UniProtKB/TrEMBL annotation:
Species lineage: Bacteria, Bacillati, Bacillota, Bacilli, Lactobacillales
Keyword check for Oxidoreductase: no
PROSITE patterns: DEGV (PS51482)
Record has Lipid metabolism as a keyword: no
Keywords: Lipid-binding
UniProt organism field: Lentilactobacillus buchneri DSM 20057
Alphabetized NCBIfam families for the sequence: DegV
Name the UniProt record assigns to this protein: DegV family protein
GO molecular function: lipid binding
Pfam families xref list: DegV
InterPro entries referenced in this protein's UniProt entry, alphabetically: DegV, DegV_C, DegV_domain_contain
Length: 280
């Protein structure tokens, strides 16, 4: 009998409670910190509540790291029955969790394989769900890993940032460009690919974003899109606009709208919208 494989991932992954329970996925729970003090934990606060907190505080809350010790203990507990562990994490450009998980795996008494998804939140969920389905089908970790690479290579990620302070803080754009952009009412369209950020468009807010999507949709018509996720950090008016626009162009593609999780909110800031889609 083959050893069971258990899945571990980040709270950043957009996974439903039904999927988490059905596949027995363990989710890491990073702390929320403000002014050096612990406010709570990500898994105990809704995305909407975190957005309210983010708005109300002049000193913005940050998402702390899940410690190596905590991850090691989880790996040891999950592997105590002889199970193997597949641990899939947010891109190391966005979080320290992958690095901490690698260290924890080296210390754990369990057999652990740690994967850098090299994608953002919605893309992470694509990989985790694929892994879960393959595990349920009886596949081994060596069988699963190439499939995760294929999913990653077929994932496209874009997000628009309407308040650029967070991407300045996270060094996606320089401070001077951020300062000038803020005063010029500039919006930025950023692509995340090959595990890095690429500024692909900028200009006056709605006009530049709409022009980008008109061009991008022409390219998308040449692709086989099987899943599409729209994320927003704030009011969902822009997300609904994108959904209507994309649904008109791709009526047979399932499109979901979800508020960004705390990890992505602290990275891209408020009033931002992300579009992630998967090619078949």
């Amino acid at each position: 009998m083959m050893n069971q494989i258990k899945l571990v991932t980040d709270s950043a992954a957009h996974l439903s409670k039904i999927d988490l329970q059905a596949y027995g996925i363990s989710v890491l729970n990073p702390p929320i910190i403000m002014d050096g003090k612990l406010l709570g934990y990500v898994n105990k606060i809704s995305s909407e509540k975190f957005l309210q907190l983010f708005d109300q505080c002049s000193n913005k809350p940050i998402i702390g790291d899940v410690s190596v010790g905590e991850i090691t203990r989880l790996y040891n507990e999950l592997g105590a029955d002889g199970s193997q562990i597949l641990s899939i994490h947010l891109s190391d450009k966005l979080s320290n969790t992958y690095a901490n998980a690698k260290t924890a795996a080296s210390k754990s008494t369990s057999q652990v394989t740690v994967v850098n998804s090299q994608v953002t939140a919605a893309g992470l969920s694509y990989q985790v769900l694929e892994a879960a389905k393959l595990i349920a089908a009886g596949k081994s970790i060596p069988d699963i890993l190439p499939q995760l690479t294929k999913i990653r290579n077929r994932t496209r990620i874009f997000f628009s940032v309407r308040n650029n302070q967070q991407i300045v803080n996270n060094r996606i754009i320089g401070k001077l460009r951020g300062f000038l952009g803020k005063h010029a009412n500039t919006a930025y369209m950023i692509k995340f690919g090959d595990n890095d950020f690429d500024l692909v468009a900028h200009g006056s807010k709605d006009e530049s974003l709409n022009e980008f999507w008109q061009t991008q949709m022409q390219a998308m018509h040449d692709e086989c899109i099987v899943k599409l996720t729209i994320l927003h950090s704030g009011t969902n008016a822009r997300a609904q606009f994108l959904r209507e626009m994309l649904n008109d162009e791709f009526p047979f593609v399932p499109i979901s709208i979800v508020p960004t999780n705390p990890e992505m909110t602290t990275f891209i800031g408020r009033e931002s919208t992300g579009v992630t889609y998967l090619l078949g």
